[in-house]
Structure formats: C-alpha cells, structure tokens
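Our collaborator T.R. sent over the components below with a one-line note: 'Predict the complex.' Nothing else. No constraints on interfaces, no templates requested, no preferences about which chain binds where. So this is a plain run: every listed entity goes in together, and whatever single assembly comes back becomes the starting point for the next discussion.
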Amino acid sequence: MMQRRQRVDNKKTVQQQFGGQQTIHGYATSTVHAHGQSLQRLACFIQPQPTWYVLDVATGAGHTAHLFAPRVSQVIATDITPGMLAKAAELAARLGLTNVQTRLADAESLPFDDNTFDLLTCRLAFHHFPQSQQVLAEFARVLKSGGTLGFTDNIVVPDKKAAAYYNAYERLRDPSHHWVYPLPRLRKMMAAAGLTVITIDQLSKEFEFHKWADRQNVSPANREKLLLLMRNIPAALKLLFAPRWEDDTMYFNLWEAVIIAQK
Amino acid sequence: MAVSMDLLEILRCPYCVSGETRKEGDDPGQLNLVNDGRWLVCTEPDCGREYPVKEDIPVMLIEEGDKWQDTPVETLPEPGKLID
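Returned assembly:
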C-alpha cells in the first residue's frame, strides 16, 4: 500500500502539472481531448436517459461532462486541479449547460454516497492515478446497481519491458503520469472491482511531437531525450508508436481503449 | 450557480465514506451545510473534518478537511476563491 504522504505528493504533481494557465488552455482546446474519437465512441455506445445522474471523474476541461449534459438530468464533474475545474465550469456556462456542477475531489476517495450515479465517465485520466485499483473500487461504490461505466484511457502492449519503456517515455513528458496498462490488465482490474466489461473498442491516434510536448511545457532538453527514446524504441513498441519523421518533426501514434462496463 | 440542495444530498465526507477509513453504518459521512452555505461539516462523531465551498464549488479533498478538522464553526473563515 502506497504511503499517504507519497500519494499526497503525487496529487500535488498532478495539480502543478495541470494547474498552469497555458496547460489549462491547451487541454480546453486540444483536438484529441475536445473532439477525440473516443468521445464520439462513448456517445455511440452509451444511450443516456433524461433521468440520469452522471459523474465525470477527472473531468479536465469538462469535454465528456459537456457531451452528456444535454441528454441527462444532472452531471457532476470532479477534478483534483482547481484551475481545470474552473475551466470546465466556464465552458459549461458558455455552452448554456445549466445542469453541470463541479466538485474538487480525488478519484481515490470520491465524496459521494453509495449507489448514486447511473453513469460514471472517466476519460484519458486513469494513467494519473497511483492507487488505480482503489479508484475502480470507488467507481463501483458510487455507481447504482446496473449503472454504466464509460471509460477510456491509453493502453500499452502486454510485454513488461516494453510497457516500462512506454511509461518512462510518457513520464518524461508529464511527471504526473503514473502508469498506462495493457488491455487484459484493465479488464482484470475492473472485474476485481465488480465491474463487468460489456464492450471494448480500440483506436489509434496520431500526434505531432512538438504539439504533444507543448501541451505539457516540456523543456528543450527533455524533448531531445524523448526524440532519442523514440529513435531507439524496442521492437515490441514499433507497431504501437509507429514513429515517422517528416519535415523536421516526428509523428507517432498512441493507442486508446474505450471500455463500457456495468456494475 | 449556487450549490443545489438535491446535489448536496448525495455529497459525503470522503474520509468517512471511502476506502479503509470508511466508517460503519449504511450511510456514513453525511454532511451539514453551515455558515450560510459556505462550509460543509462532517457529522460523524469522531471525524470533525470541515470542507469549504469556494465560489459555489465544494472542495471535497481529505487534505482540505484535515486542515480545518475540529475548528469551531463560528471561527471558520470566509472560504475565499477557488484559485488563489
């Protein structure tokens, strides 16, 4: 069990990493986050009802909360970073959404009663959670029986050495990155939390290296290291990253899983 | 937007409702809204954590509750802004 002090330090790293105005703006306008394919897939797989209470955990700039809000009764959006939450509330107001409320909260200890939500969404955030199994236990606790989990996160290949290389690459860009898991591991973790996986979709998304690095204000020295890491990727990651160099920049892919599960 | 009462009804003290520190009973960690809706106080007898509502947004982090644990309600300050 990770010590509480270390967990608090990890959360402070997330708050620092995502609390800057430039970063907040970057995530509010990022194509991957605001209009990503996984957002469309969630909308496609989940048919929300007008009576539903929805919780969007680690909402960031609120894109997932805003997607479902027009079709449900209430959405509560949580995040651990005050600046992100303020941005989510600002964007909700700009969109005319009057049923989105925000709470500063930690995914590992959600401040809600048991069996409360019809739908819980968590998109592209799970890799930040040090106590990931505890987070899934919390998802299961606050979902109603029969409630739906709409989950997306990046995934990695099952090979352990390759997974470690991948996660080191991500953490060099974002120190608040904790761990990206392979899909079979995610399935097991969800099952252990009492969540039954209903359907899984996988997608690949392309990034231009400097735009990706800009979103986390990566230093020039670390950009060099990241590019070097990408030139030397292990064979097990070549299919995933599929790096290509063009016009003095580098393009690469990340894989994302969309998982719909039920309590 | 003010904090709506029906959404406050589902809010709980994160320390008393989740994980290894969850209190006994079928609905632990209920909160009272005090000081004109500016603070939320855990009702568990041995908790004493208090959570500010900053600009209509409840700050429901355990670390925040720890900061104000057992502070007499009448001496709790104005919660202030969400972003310092």
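Summary for T.R.: Chain B is about 15% helix and 20% strand.
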